[in-house]
Fold this protein.
Amino acid sequence: MIESDHRVLAYARTLAPPSGWKVEVSGRTIIVTAPPPTDHAGNLRIVRRQFDAHRPPELMPSENTDLASPTVGKLRNPDLTYVPLSVLESGGNEVPAEQAAIAVEIVSPSNPENDLVGKVRDYPLMDIPLYLVIDPRTGGITLYSDPSPTGYHRQWNGKFGDRVPVPAPFDFELTTDTLLRYPA
């Protein structure tokens, strides 16, 4: 990572966005996103309840947690992640990205490219083993796995109504028949 990326990351950490807004960093780009609509929150609740029922006891759910990867100049904030309980001991506002077991995103209607392109590029670089993308605009679902510096090597694609095979450490099938589509 070059020095300008470090400066962008350092500057982004000083920002204090309004309540509900997210600040993320991808290389030299700072991304600020507005709070999501209520159907976004409804879908997140549906997904989280299922993950909570299958999470290992050493992992805790966290919504809108900053996952930091300074070595690659990334600061991302997934809608939902599961991190070790031990992160509570370190305190602070950021969690090392490589400690996340999964990142879950409900695609934003205002900035879908951030979830569908930027995070697909950044999360494997940040060594996040699973990335679940739910797109209420299209009714599509993608689960990425097996990260490397060149991207995710595995990809499962489905649609609302399908059962998503979520691997270890969760090891269950996510039901998606009650997910809500965004209004046309």
About this structure: The two ends are 41 Å apart (CA to CA). The mean pLDDT is 88. Residues 38-54 form the longest helix (17 residues).
